[in-house]
Specification:
This protein is about 50% helix and about 0% strand. It is mainly α. The protein has a domain of about 45 residues. The protein is elongated, with a radius of gyration of 16 Å. The relative contact order is 0.13.
């Protein structure tokens, strides 16, 4: 049975082993974008505080707050 190298799975992020940072960072970016493209945007732009509203009202900020949690 072939051994799957760490970080080569679509469900596990690539592991940084202390070498080739730029290659790893590109692979990590692609991995995150593959999970949810908007999560990468949150990583680049920064965390957005979740609004305090009623649960029935879904706004763009609510959606971004959920994506913040995924990014973290």
């Amino acid at each position: 049975m072939a051994r799957i190298e760490e970080g080569s799975s679509i469900s596990c992020p690539p592991v940084f082993k202390g070498e080739a940072y730029f290659q790893w960072s590109n692979i990590m970016k692609y991995f995150i974008e593959a999970q949810d493209f908007e999560v990468w945007e949150i990583i680049e732009e920064g965390y957005l505080e979740a609004p305090k509203k009623k649960k029935k009202q879904m706004s763009e900020n609510d959606t971004k707050a959920k994506l913040n949690a995924r990014a973290m």
